[in-house]
């Protein structure tokens, strides 16, 4: 059987990783797929570099349209990124009847509905394992491995940059700014780290996972997104003293009222396996009603880990390309005519536990005032840490961990507490999830 | 489209779990599969109990042949266990053109080659996600999620009973016998726990994973199997002092000389994620050349976790049943005509690091004798722990951690050390893997 022909759009880090792994493991991959997988054409603006990276073995063009319009190409791999030209090219490839593999979470999180619809109409597959958690086969696990389950929640460390920064802050007692600079120097953070540190990248990924888990359309605009830029070292230390770690989690949870979809720094018990995922590593916990909690861990970025996911999609498509389109695996795990319209809840309706840090006057009655306000709001306290004032200081920190409540309740209570004369400045509030 | 019809052979724990989950999540599973999945017939010797468990909604028979010969049945789920009648029924179902789902690792580890060959000839699928690590989709990850990779090694905690016992021994300082009794009382170990505690169950599972990872035939008879029955609490404590945990691991590793396939208690660094997998939980680390290390964690047993895997296979088959047989996922991940004949190495040829515990006279020169023997054998020492003799004692324990060497070298060195007059009794030897 003649090899399936692949066209690569963009040959940067992931593109050259894909080229190299396909070449190095060609024999083994063919033994698995039953058919060769050949990169037949590469489009990149820097044609010279593209020719170098592919050792002159592949046709290189600067115009990506030549790839998506080439009738010889069976599968287009989009590794350009962003939503502009990448979107046009993906839609053109689909219109031309080509299957698409992409690592572009931003594109799918924002334009996924349009793209999957187009693919459905043309009976082609759009595969995106590489878009979430790099080399970890989490999309496959959610879409195929856990099909028996009513998924209850997902919580993932799905951005390596921020996990590296948080690990460094905790390990070395660094402040955010210092840890960020270190991450940049080591290549774990980009020169403009906004997408990572503001939680946007993680929100793209959890949006895609939520769709697959719950059978809902892709709705990035409804996600609540909070990054790690305001996180202080002192809170990481207090959390530790209380038995918790702080991680940037992407969380999607099914509730009776709708779906929670949110990214924010989160306290999690230090004894949970996911709390011990350090450095730039990724991990996702998926909780299903039958299977309970399962966890998937690995490298979430990098040339070859991401290439591993791209190539797994290529093999899947090679295997499934001849199958009846109605019996292939649905793009979003559920059949397109059987999607759910469960609403995404606004953050005010979300339920969580909370870590609160208050700076208060070291004076009798202060704690009573605070706990009274919480009790009035129906919020109960799970744990408390009160520090002795430093030598010569008259003020001190109080840390409270609350039981679960709705975000609007804690917002109201915080506003009242901030109104107390004995409380200085703003209250630091970090969400807390037990993940059990 | 009319539902796909499933016949269940045996309705014990996993069978009733499968029935219950399929029923409870029927709507969601159908939305995923695009077609209903219906248990149409159940065979069990205890027909009365089978009728109770299925609430009179399903035809119940005592003769399993009525299921495998029923032309209405599309998929047979074998949950009888063992290699006798289960094997006959699976082969009959295949001969009758039915797809098969089984949780029977013993059957596949021993008769897999024959069964997969029969399935290949009849163009039917044999799926066995439930045979390894319960609800964790590890077979799918290995067979489909990591197809880009040359798999280098797999190491798994794939027997919940022994992991529970080892966790209890470490946590509570229990001896093996006491921890086993506790596990039995809590339902984590069977009345006859031989298969679990002797490592046989884990060996069945790692044999299957090795086949899928390396594209080799199923060869349980070549696996090295050592259980946890001889493990002493003192070694768990010494290991801990040196920064290690002891786990029963199933290990499969590719080397230049062949494949290592082995189950035995293993020291692993306490900081590894898998070292922190406690109680009856399972976890598997897979190391691929492109992706690096990935880890999969979850419940390895129980009614609904195992049912989760059985049903995932049912959905896969429902999706793939209409596809061209040559383009389905191969049973053992590699195309049947592209299997490898890499040999499985005898344990003497295996490479490992070692933990050695010696009881020695507290006298000058003893350690020099021991280290001289190791040096002569080309074995270098990575760490050492020497305990002070207890009050009034003249003997003490020395613990050595070695660098990597072949098993036959350490065997020879141990024999020489045991010949020293200053060394009392046998030397305790436990393998050690860094898993990095």
Automatic annotation (TrEMBL), chains A, B:
<dbReference type="GO" id="GO:0009088">
    <property type="term" value="P:threonine biosynthetic process"/>
</dbReference>
<protein>
    <recommendedName>
        <fullName>Homoserine dehydrogenase</fullName>
        <ecNumber>1.1.1.3</ecNumber>
    </recommendedName>
</protein>
<keyword id="KW-0486">Methionine biosynthesis</keyword>
<dbReference type="InterPro" id="IPR045865">
    <property type="entry name" value="ACT-like_dom_sf"/>
</dbReference>
<keyword id="KW-0521">NADP</keyword>
<dbReference type="Pfam" id="PF03447">
    <property type="entry name" value="NAD_binding_3"/>
</dbReference>
<feature type="active site" description="Proton donor">
    <location>
        <position position="205"/>
    </location>
</feature>
<keyword id="KW-0791">Threonine biosynthesis</keyword>
<comment type="pathway">
    <text>Amino-acid biosynthesis; L-methionine biosynthesis via de novo pathway; L-homoserine from L-aspartate: step 3/3.</text>
</comment>
<dbReference type="InterPro" id="IPR036291">
    <property type="entry name" value="NAD(P)-bd_dom_sf"/>
</dbReference>
<dbReference type="GO" id="GO:0004412">
    <property type="term" value="F:homoserine dehydrogenase activity"/>
</dbReference>
<dbReference type="InterPro" id="IPR019811">
    <property type="entry name" value="HDH_CS"/>
</dbReference>
<feature type="binding site">
    <location>
        <position position="190"/>
    </location>
    <ligand>
        <name>L-homoserine</name>
    </ligand>
</feature>
<dbReference type="InterPro" id="IPR002912">
    <property type="entry name" value="ACT_dom"/>
</dbReference>
<feature type="binding site">
    <location>
        <begin position="9"/>
        <end position="16"/>
    </location>
    <ligand>
        <name>NADP(+)</name>
    </ligand>
</feature>
<feature type="binding site">
    <location>
        <position position="105"/>
    </location>
    <ligand>
        <name>NADPH</name>
    </ligand>
</feature>
<dbReference type="Pfam" id="PF00742">
    <property type="entry name" value="Homoserine_dh"/>
</dbReference>
<dbReference type="GO" id="GO:0050661">
    <property type="term" value="F:NADP binding"/>
</dbReference>
<dbReference type="InterPro" id="IPR001342">
    <property type="entry name" value="HDH_cat"/>
</dbReference>
<dbReference type="Pfam" id="PF01842">
    <property type="entry name" value="ACT"/>
</dbReference>
<comment type="similarity">
    <text>Belongs to the homoserine dehydrogenase family.</text>
</comment>
<keyword id="KW-0560">Oxidoreductase</keyword>
<comment type="pathway">
    <text>Amino-acid biosynthesis; L-threonine biosynthesis; L-threonine from L-aspartate: step 3/5.</text>
</comment>
<feature type="domain" description="ACT">
    <location>
        <begin position="355"/>
        <end position="431"/>
    </location>
</feature>
<dbReference type="GO" id="GO:0009086">
    <property type="term" value="P:methionine biosynthetic process"/>
</dbReference>
<dbReference type="InterPro" id="IPR005106">
    <property type="entry name" value="Asp/hSer_DH_NAD-bd"/>
</dbReference>
<keyword id="KW-0028">Amino-acid biosynthesis</keyword>
<dbReference type="InterPro" id="IPR016204">
    <property type="entry name" value="HDH"/>
</dbReference>
């Amino acid at each position: 059987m003649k090899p399936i022909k692949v066209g690569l759009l963009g040959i940067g880090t992931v593109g050259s990783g894909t080229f190299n792994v396909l070449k190095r493991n060609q024999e083994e991959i063919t033994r698995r797929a039953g058919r060769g997988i050949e990169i037949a054409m590469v489009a990149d603006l820097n044609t010279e570099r593209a020719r170098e990276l592919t050792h002159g073995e592949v046709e290189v063009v600067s115009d990506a349209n030549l790839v998506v319009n080439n009738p010889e190409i069976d599968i287009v791999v989009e590794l350009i990124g962003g939503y502009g030209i990448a979107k046009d090219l993906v839609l053109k490839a689909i219109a031309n009847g080509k299957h698409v593999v992409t690592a572009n979470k931003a594109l799918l999180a924002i334009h996924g509905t349009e793209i999957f619809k187009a693919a459905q109409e043309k009976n082609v597959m759009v595969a995106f394992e590489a878009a979430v958690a790099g080399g970890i086969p989490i999309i496959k696990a959610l879409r195929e491995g856990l099909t028996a389950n009513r998924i209850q929640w997902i919580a993932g460390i799905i951005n390596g940059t921020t996990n590296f920064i948080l690990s460094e802050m905790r390990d070395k007692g660094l402040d955010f700014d210092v840890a960020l600079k270190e991450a940049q120097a080591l290549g774990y953070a980009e020169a403009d780290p906004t997408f990572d540190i503001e939680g946007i990248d993680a929100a793209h990924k959890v949006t895609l996972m939520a769709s697959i888990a719950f059978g809902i359309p892709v709705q990035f605009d409804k996600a609540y997104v909070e990054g790690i830029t305001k996180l202080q070292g002192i809170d990481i230390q207090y959390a530790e003293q209380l038995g918790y770690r702080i991680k940037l989690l992407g969380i999607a949870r099914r509730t009776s009222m709708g779906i929670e979809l949110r990214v924010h720094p989160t306290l999690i018990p230090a004894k949970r396996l996911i709390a011990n995922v350090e450095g730039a590593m990724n991990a996702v916990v998926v909780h299903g009603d039958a299977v309970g909690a399962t966890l998937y861990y690995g490298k979430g970025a990098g040339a070859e880990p991401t290439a591993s996911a791209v190539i797994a999609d290529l093999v899947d498509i090679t295997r499934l390309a001849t199958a009846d389109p109605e019996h292939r695996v649905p793009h979003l795990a559920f059949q397109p005519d059987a999607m759910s319209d469960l609403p995404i809840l606004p953050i005010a309706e979300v339920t969580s536990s909370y870590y609160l840090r208050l700076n208060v006057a070291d004076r009798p009655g202060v704690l009573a005032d605070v706990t009274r306000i919480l009790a009035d709001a129906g919020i109960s306290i799970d744990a408390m840490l009160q520090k002795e004032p430093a030598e010569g200081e008259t003020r001190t920190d109080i840390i409270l961990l609350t039981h679960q409540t709705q975000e609007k309740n804690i917002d109201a209570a915080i506003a009242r507490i901030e109104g107390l004369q004995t409380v200085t400045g703003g209250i630091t509030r970090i969400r807390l999830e037990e993940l059990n």
